[in-house]
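pinging the channel bc i need a second pair of eyes. not urgent but kinda urgent?? the chain im working w is below, pasted from the shared doc
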Amino acid sequence: MNIQKTSRLLQLLSYGVMLVMPVLLVLFWFGIPGVSGGGAQSVGADVGINFIPPSILILHPLSFEDRCIGFLISALPVALLVYLFYTLSKLFHFFRAGEIFSLIVVNVIKRIGYLLLAYEIVDTLFDGLMAVAMTWDNPPGHRYIELTFSGVNGAMMLTAVIVLLVSGIMAEACKLSEEHSLTI
């Protein structure tokens, strides 16, 4: 497969994720009453997506207020993911056009690195906020806060740093190439 076809496929996939993630977020928290029972605990099972960390034990039915709070807390990491996939779609657009080693592409790659880093930080905070929000109405002794940082979070942060490093190296290569093209 050549780079244009692969880039087009990945660009379309990025668009798909951008469209599906917000829809899944709304369906997860509010559902469609009568179709899936409506709301977080039933739709999550139906679509295989869960915006509540599995370690959080909810000992009460989720009220509409709980769902709204959960939706708002979940919206930030989802918004970051949507923006990340939008940025990836731009990168694949440039690749399709044959633009690979340019400062525009370098800036897009740098933005991807920063978004990956931001997502991992927000994801760690998300778990804590969601634990507080979802266990707030639990009986006394069953409310808690949970902050988790796993090897996966560390690996993703390392990947983000490597992407940033690669974008820096590509920026230097672009500058050298431009200088070389101006040399007679």
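so The mean pLDDT is 85. and The chain has five helices and no strands. — does that match what u expected or am i reading it wrong
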